[in-house]
Specification:
2 copies of one chain form a homodimer.
Chain A (H helix, E strand, L loop, with lengths): L4 E6 L10 H9 L2 E5 L7 H11 L3 E3 L1 H6 L1 H7 L3 E6 L7 H13 L3 E4 L4 H9 L10 E3 L10 H11 L4 E5 L16 H14 L11 E6 L7 E6 L12 E5 L5 H8 L6
Amino acid sequence: MEKTGLSLIGIGPGNLDLMTKQAIDVSQSADIRFLEGYTSSLPTESQKELENMVGEWSMLMRPMMESADEILKIAENKKVAIMVIGDPMIATTHIDIRLRCLERGINFNYIPGISAISLAISTSGLQSYRFGRQITITYQYGEYLPISPLIQMVENRSRGLHTLALLDLDPTGMGVEIPVPMTPEEAGRILKEMAKKSEENVEDIESWNVLVCSDLGTFSERIIATTVGELCNIHGGRIHSLIFPSEMHEMENLAFNSWKIHS
Amino acid sequence: MEKTGLSLIGIGPGNLDLMTKQAIDVSQSADIRFLEGYTSSLPTESQKELENMVGEWSMLMRPMMESADEILKIAENKKVAIMVIGDPMIATTHIDIRLRCLERGINFNYIPGISAISLAISTSGLQSYRFGRQITITYQYGEYLPISPLIQMVENRSRGLHTLALLDLDPTGMGVEIPVPMTPEEAGRILKEMAKKSEENVEDIESWNVLVCSDLGTFSERIIATTVGELCNIHGGRIHSLIFPSEMHEMENLAFNSWKIHS
C-alpha cells in the first residue's frame, strides 16, 4: 500500500456495519482522517463509533473541500483519508479532487461505499432498470421555487419509468451549516406547490403513489407505501428519500403493497 | 439475531474486501450457505477465499432459486444465507423470495452489497443524476435480435441523459450454465447490428463515446474511454459494463478524458 496520497472512502449509509472491510482497513491505516460533513450527516452515536473503529477524525465542510489545496499538500507527504457517508463519487466536488490528484501526481485511491441511492432502489423491490433520471427536491428559498424536478418526474412517468427523489438537506444552500434533512411532509408540500405553478397535467398529484424510504441501512430503517396527498401524515425518522413508481409490473405491485401499513 | 430464517446477502462486486462487515458476520453465523451462481460469477480464487472468510458454501442455480420451496423449508428451522454477487435485490427472482418469506412467516433479512451498477456510475466520474434508464445488451439468439436497448439509449440521449449498459452473461438464456460474460467487442458488434435494423437516426453510432468498465472493484479494475467503432480493439478483462455518455458537462468531460489511453 502507498505511503502517501489521498483516499476517498465511502463508509455506507450510516450504519457502520455496512462499511466494507477495505473502507475500515484503509481508514485505520491513514495518518490523518476527515469525515466529509456537508453532503450528509451521521447520528451522534455513530460519530463516536466511527472513532472507535478507525481512530480520531475531524469534520470537513464544503469550503475546505472545494479549495482542497491544504488537503492536497498534506497528501503529498502523508496518507490522508477523506471518509464520505454513502459513496464518495456522486457529487462533482469529489470528482474534482480525483482530477486534481492526477494532475499533481498525488496517489489517489477511491473506495466505494453503499449509497442511499442504490439502497433505496434495491430495498424498494422495484426493478432497477425501470428507473429514469433521478431528481432532488430542494428547499424553497423565499419566493424561488424551480419546478424542473416535477417536470423531470412527469417525463419519467410518460416513459413508464419510476423516479427516485433525493431530499435536500441544506436549507441555506451554502454547505456550511450542519445538514437539516427535509421531511417527507415538507417534500409533499413543496411538490404540491410545484404542481400549482406547473403547466403540466398534474392535478391528480395527490393520488400519486410514493414510497417513503427512511434511514435506510440503519436499525431504524422504515419504508412506507403511501400517496403524495398523505405525505403530511408521515412523521419520524432522520433521513428520507422518496420513490415515485410509474405503472408497476405484477411483482412490483406486490412489493409496493408489502410496504403499506395495515392498521 | 434470529435463530432461523433466510438472509439475502450482497457480497459486492467480486473483490471480497468490498464485502461489508455485516455481510461477513451474517454469512459466518449461518447454518447453511449458498452462493447464487447464475446472475454473476466469482473468479476461482475468490471462491476459495470466500470459503476461508465465511465457511463452506454450495452453488445455487436458477431452477432451485425459482422453485425455492426446498430453501424456504430449511429456513423454517435453520439460518440460511444466500450470498449474491453485487446487491441481491436487483433481479425479480430475489424480490420474489422476500415476498414468499413474508407470506410464510419466515424471518427475512436483506443485507445490501455494492453492485457493479452503482460502481460503474460512481467510478466513471459522470454525474449520477444525469443517467437515464439503464439497458442490457443481450446475446443474439439465432436470427432474433431485439433493438429495444438501442431505442432506449437514443431516448436517453435525446433527453441529454447518459446510459449505463449491462452486458449479458447467459448465452443460453436459461440460467443453468456457468455464466459467460459478453466482451466489449461482442457488445460493439451487436450494437452495430441493432443500428442497421433500426429506423432511428443512428448512422453515426461508430463515433459515439463509450466508457468500458472492466472488473470494477477488483484489483484488475480498468476503465477505458473510447468509441463504439473502437470497441473491437478492447481485449482482456472478465466482466464489463459500458457507459454511453450523452452531452457532458465540463467536469464530466475532464473525467471522461482522464480515462483515455495516451500511448
